[in-house]
Fold each of these.
Amino acid sequence: MKIAHIFNEVKRKDNDTKKFISPQEFDVDYISKNKGYSNKNYQINSDYDKLYYEALQPIKDGNIISKYDEDKINNFLEKIDNEVLMISGDFWGIQKFIFDSLSSKNASKILRSRSAMVQLITYALTDIIKEMFESEVVLFGAGKFLILAKPDNYEEKLSNLQKELDKYFIKNFFGQNGVVLSYKMTTKENINNQNSEKMKKDLIALGKQNELKKLNKFDIQNLEDDNLVIDIFKEVKKDDEICGFCNKRVAISKIKDEKVCSICKNQINLGQKLTTNRYMKIFKNSKVVDSIEILKYKDTIYYASFYNNETKLYDKKGDIFDISNKKYDPKLGIAKWPLSSFVAKENDDIISFEKLQENSNGLMALKADVDKLGDTFREFYMTSFKKFNRLSRELEFFFGNYVPYLIENNDEYNKKLYVIFAGGDDLFLIGEHRTIIKFAKDIREKFYEWTLKKATLSMGLVMFKHSTPITYISDLADEAEARAKNVTYPNQKITRDGIDIFGISMKFDEFINIEKEWQKVVNELEKSDKDTTSFYYRLIELSQMREDMKDNPLNSMWKSKLNYIFKRNLNKVDENIYKIVSSLIEKYGKKLHPSIFLTIYKNRDKINQNKGENR
Ligand SMILES: [Zn+2]
């Protein structure tokens, strides 16, 4: 059976008409070629069931629609009359949830697990709704979901649920984040013919309601519990101490001399378990020893427990997942949800950012996301849940599964990188700066290849010290990514595929070309034992002059100055090197800065290491 790749359906950038390439095997070396899996020793009742694998099996040879989506939606529609309720959920304030008031000292222990917690809470929430209605989850991912349900006393049910959720988020997270639920009635006919104008209208209405609700967030007047907001402070006593991780809630115990609140403690435990276990089970109500609390709703509490041994998995009812980045094992038939992602470890303990910075002059954060994917997503979302699902599932596979797998299995990456978020259509990771740059080039190429050269990534890279507050790093990386997306070329339409590094934006190809040429210069200059640093700083000045020539004609003197410093300081250097430097400055101006900075950093590291060895 040939599996079609969704990017066959995506319009090519150089051609306005849709181009169908003959279906090709969904073939990344990571995916198991063994597609027939039948052994199921446990009935998994979840939407992650068969995710990525059977879910990619088409309804017929070469078709883009997955049999899984086809069957799921059809089975649901068979069970109901003509009216269908669409319920959407949107977890807002995710950035705040993950980064807010986190001290950089403790960040490494908790960042990844907060990011996983967003997904777990969303999962529990879809389960709550499934308990309320005859329903089917059609979309799920990155804090968002869409459920088709049989309309049954829905206004009251959903309004109660919203109230409970608001209470929960205000009590536990100070109302800095939450989930908004929206709903819209549609018909079976519309779902079956999603291309219809009627269905598009309903989906647009649902989206609008969602945006409006996000603006209003908590409807404070509707909160019945008058004491709710005050309660947070009532509980605080005079001599209470504040948690050293979130700097917000009252501490209840300690982790290695650091005071910790119950929520952070739960999150830290989750982080630890994610890095050391292969399997996870989600269940409700009866707590088992050492389980993690996900969400409390009325009398129901959702928990996750973690295992390394398959046999214990089936002791108790629950949804079971393989959370590792390992290949899917058809003999076990356990659904994959690679929540563990990847974080650098040392003896099973998550490495601190301080440690990650050792032997290196700096850490770097990288944020990346897919260029112009919104248009493609919107088109698929409006015309077909089934196609939309295929696209989001394939992208989720690339970012959420393949990226951590790549890092885990590369001996350089796996010692120096920490994934904060990888999923949906974006990526946020931090690590030793040279490793980050190498990874950035690597992943850009792999993504381009994987999307059949139809989609690109833009990336923002920023340097920071381990003591820099994590919210600040996240904001800087966001800004850098936004600049990278704005890279334009004269006489060309915006194509993106940009990089912003050390605050300088350019096309990724330019960065790679500059690096290649610049390396020739460095190789030659570093042969001598002369101190090259001051020379590099002069080049930074000269390339800035070249950049500013328009503003001040005097800046055109950069050429003669370059000639002078070469003759004066580097007279034995090959004439060819002078030519390379001169043409690099001429052509690229300040875009040369990042490459020069990286060389200066490298030399500094070398000096520091030599000092260390001589000590
Ligand atoms: Zn805390």
Amino acid sequence: MKQLVVLSGKGGAGKTSLTASFADLSAAGPTKASMVIADADVDASNLALVLDPHPVQRTDFWGGQIARVDRETCLGCGACQAVCRFDAIQIQDGISRIGPIACEGCAACMYTCPQDAITMHMQVVGQWYHSETRYGPLIHAHLKPAQENSGKLVSQVKKQAQDLAEENLPAWVLVDGPPGIGCPVISALSGADLALVVAEPGLSGVHDMRRALETVAHFGIPAAVCINKSDLYPEGCAEIKRYCQDHDLDLLGTIPFDETITAAMSRGKPVTSYQSDAPSSQAIRRIWKSMWLVPKQVLLELLG
Ligand code: SF4
Ligand code: SF4
């Protein structure tokens, strides 16, 4: 079982459009029967908007704890309010009241309360889904607003996708990873065989790409690069190309700025499916093909 993770150093670089198109291209090729798609960008899970999923299973995701007050026991002394570093507690009408969004679950108030009036409770912070799409099974998730367990939820999404792929060996997992370099990205990279970093030639393009590549390299995972909106800022594009050359990185291709991508997204389709001869579709198809030729031959193994 192999895993390809699509990443970017920041949001909005186009990795979800690219992942959706890869799913579409895979569905038309020899890997269709064995591909599982995972949306590991749980804070902005947009892949489902493009792949038109039909959920077959929905499961609650239990995250961190939250404090609750027993109103019958609380004396309103304010000791809990004094120790809460997150300003989650107010004393109103002589009773402690805890704001569920502000509460970080540190339990300091529970240990402080002289009345043992506070208890900690696990809470449902989101859901994960197993859905069917015309491109293959999709594991995706929804995290409730202001919840901070996205790393754990990404791990759950990855595990479900891997388990599903293991049931259908030989199989591989296509992952739409989170942007940035934080905890969810590290979870998304776990077990990956290849990371494709989508770079954008903006003013901070090289910087964003380098941060993502350094994170990938830290875990010893082979990486390749593609450039989106490559014609918008030629100097930035040239700089990214130079960086790849200097660091012996595979640059798999460039995608021109193309309004067809936005039009396809707004109609809930991968651009390669929406308009297969659009300039962006042709470029993505070339990148998809060249992926099978990366020196590590990671994905090539899948074709036996
Ligand atoms: S410390 Fe306990 S008794 Fe005092 S206000 Fe808080 S919950 Fe109520
Ligand atoms: S658990 Fe921590 S964050 Fe939540 S109300 Fe108690 S002290 Fe504040």
